[in-house]
Amino acid sequence: MCGISKTNSIFAPMKIKGLLLLAGFAFVSISSYSQKKEMIIAIGSCDNEDKPQELWPDVVRQKPMLWIWGGDNIYADSGDSTNLKRRYTKQKSDPGYQQLLKTCPITGTWDDHDYGMNDGGKFWPHRDIAKKMELEFLGIPKSNPVWSHPGIYNSLTIGEGKNKVKIINLDTRYFRDTLIKVFYKPEGTEKKEYKYEINATGDILGDTQWQWLENELKNSDAALNIVNSSIQVISEEHRFEKWANFPVARERLFKVLAASKKKILLISGDRHISEFSKINLPGMDYPLYEFLSSGLTHTWPEPWVEPNKYRIGDHVVKKSFGIISINWGDKDFNVRMQIRGKDDQLFQEHVATFAR
Predict the structure, then answer these.
(1) Element (H, E) at 93
(2) Less crowded by CB within 10 Å, the N or C end of the chain?
(3) Model confidence pLDDT, tens digit, residues 31-54
C-alpha cells in the first residue's frame, strides 16, 4: 500500500514518499511492485456527504493501489463557493475516507451534483468555481495541465514496465450540449415521469477534449487503459442520462476507442446502481466492457425492471463500490471486476481476459 502523509489543510496536495511523477500526479514507486502479479483499483460514485459513510472501511480492506471517483463526489447542486467548500470539507474529513487517503492516491472526475447543477451541461455559469473546488478535493497539484485548460478532463498512469494502467478521466459536463427533457405519464398511471430524448446533433466532449482523448490513447504505453465517464456509455434503453442521448457523440467515441487499437475498459457512475455491460465494436478485436459502479451512500428506493441488452448478469440495486483486480501474465492478463458492499459482501463479479 501507499504511504501518504497530509498537512492539516483540507485541500492540501498529497505529499508522498518515494515519488514516481506521472502526468502531474505523485505516485509511490514500490520497490517490490515489479515482483507483484496483481494490481487492485477501487472505484465508486454518488456519495452524499450528509448520509452515513458506511463503505469506506470495506474499501480500505481491499488494499487498493488507487481510488477512482466516478462523479457526484458530493451533493452540492450549487455554484456557491462557500457551500461547495463546506460540503467538500465534510466529505474529506470523514474518518473512513481519511483512512482511505492514508492508504492510496485518489483520482477521478465529476458528475452533475458536484458540477453544481442537476443534469447540467455547458451553460452552467458557475462551472469554473466548481472546477477549482473539485480539483482541490481530488488533491491534483497546480502543476498538472488540468488547471490550465477548460474542463476537468485529466489522465495518469500507474505501474511499471509492461504492467501499466492508464486512467483517462473524461469530463462529460463542461462541454456537453443541451439535453432534451420531456415529461409524460406512463401507460396505466397518473404519475408524471420524465425522460431524455435524442439530441441528434449534440456533442458531449467538445473539440479540444476529443483531440486530447485521441492523443492520450495514441501515446499510451499502458497494457490497460481505463476510460472514466461519469455517465453510462454502452447502455442505451433507460430514460435517464447516457451517451445514447447524443448518438453522434457516442458513435464517435466508439470509433476513437476502436481506432486506438489499445486495450480499454470503461467505467461510469451516476445511476445509483451497479452493473456490467459488454458490446462488440467494429475494428475492436475484443469485447468492450463497461463497469458501472454507483451508489456509495444511496440507491433506488425500490428495484424496478430496466432493460439493457448489453448487460451481463443483473443490475445491483444496493449500496456498493467496485473493485478492479488486474492479474498480470506474460501473454495475457485477467481483469476481475467485482461489485462489493458492506461487511465484505460480494454481489456480483465478472472476469475479462485481454491478450497483450
Answers:
(1) helix 81-93
(2) C
(3) 334 446 899 999 999 999 999 999
